[in-house]
Amino acid sequence: MKITVVGGGAIGGIVAARLARAGIAVNLLARGPHLDAIQRNGLTVIEGDQRYVVDVNATDQPGTLGVQDLLFICLKGPALIQAARSLAPLVDGNTHIVSVMNGVPWWFLNAFGGRLAGQRLESVDPGGIVSSVLPPSQVSGCVVHISSSIAGPGVIKKGYGNQLIVGPASAGVADQAARAINLLRLAQFDVTVSNQIRSDIWVKLWGNMTMNPISAITRSTGDVILDDPLTEQLVVSIMEEARRIGEQIGIELNMTAQARNAQTRKLGAFKTSMLQDVEAGRQMEIEAILGAPHELAAKAGVPAPFLSMLYGLAGQLNANLGANANAPTR
After folding, report:
1. 100: Cβ–Cβ under 8 A, 6 or more apart, which residues?
2. Would you write out the chain's pLDDT as a tens digit for each of its 330 residues?
3. Is-contact 275 216, C-beta < 8 A?
4. What is the DSSP string of 78-119?
5. Domain segments of the chain as ranges
6. Is 2 assigned a catalytic role?
7. Which class is 199-326 in CATH?
8. Which candidate in 204, 266, 271, 299 is catalytic?
9. Dist. CA 204–CA 202, nearest whole Å
10. What's the pTM value of the predicted model, to 2 decimals?
11. What CATH class is the domain 3-195?
12. What domain of life (predicted)?
């Protein structure tokens, strides 16, 4: 099989390295100093006390790779929108696409969503730029429960967790999804097979859509947010709105918001990925986490005032981060 991992960051790097270590030939699309270091020295992974280096065919030129049998899309939403057109040489009608992304993906409403089925989400697929290159009918979804970070150019540091939840987004790719799952298991991931991948995506989003942006705005760790009765109530209010949005598109959640938050509270004083982005001066990924649920609420006619408020605040913070990054220094 011709296999390419699109995105050599914290998660894409782990996927590519584990596949290569299992003896599976894999290409890696990366860029900048990270790519330069991988091309010079190989891709280095630190897992606990273990450190290993693998050789992967790393490039920033998708056109040199040709059509692929399997693509793992491991980019954040804004990066995928920016890169989408360049990925066209990798895809034909037989390419299986596995989206390894946070939040609501571009293919979410394909053959799903009741009266919203087949509609496009402008927030994550503006103008259809992503779906025109990566057909939703050829996709499987993957929910990641792994902590990982880029420790330096060409170096990935894996943290806690090893679980991937993988399932076809439509019946037509079930066999291809099974092959991808087998490869990921060969790569030593703990893979759970899902026949309702959208529900699994929504369950993870249920926590991310509150804790991530609130932590970024307040600079608070998770324990502080959930121990304060006012911010905890805001979290619950948004989660209840998300529950009602999910119900309108065919997703039923089998736990209370309080039970979900109790699970999160056990993680202690953790920093969310959005808080880490803000502290590093990077813009946050808010459209897949907040923009798409907000758009779904509008399409489904579900009032979501608390979600709208948080989306607006996060958008302003993001805009200010971008402005500060471009501001002249004195």
Report:
1. 11, 12, 15, 72, 73, 74, 142, 144, 164
2. 999 999 999 999 999 999 999 999 999 999 999 999 999 999 999 999 999 999 999 999 999 999 999 999 999 999 999 999 999 999 999 999 999 999 999 999 999 999 999 999 999 999 999 999 999 999 999 999 998 889 999 999 998 899 999 999 999 999 999 999 999 999 999 999 999 999 999 999 998 999 999 999 999 999 999 999 999 999 999 999 999 999 999 999 999 999 999 989 888 988 888 998 999 898 999 999 999 999 999 999 999 999 999 999 999 999 998 865 544 333
3. yes
4. HHHHHHGGGGGGG--TT-EEEEE-SSS-TTTTTT-SGGGTT-
5. 3-195, 199-326
6. no
7. mainly alpha
8. 204
9. 5
10. 0.94
11. alpha beta
12. Bacteria
How many CA atoms does the CB half-sphere of 30 hold within 13 Å? 30
Give me the count of residues in the chain.
330
Of 328, 264, 248, 259, which Cα lies nearest the Cα of 296?
248
Side chain identity at 97, as an amino acid letter?
I
| The two structure tokens encoding residue 162 | 């090893």
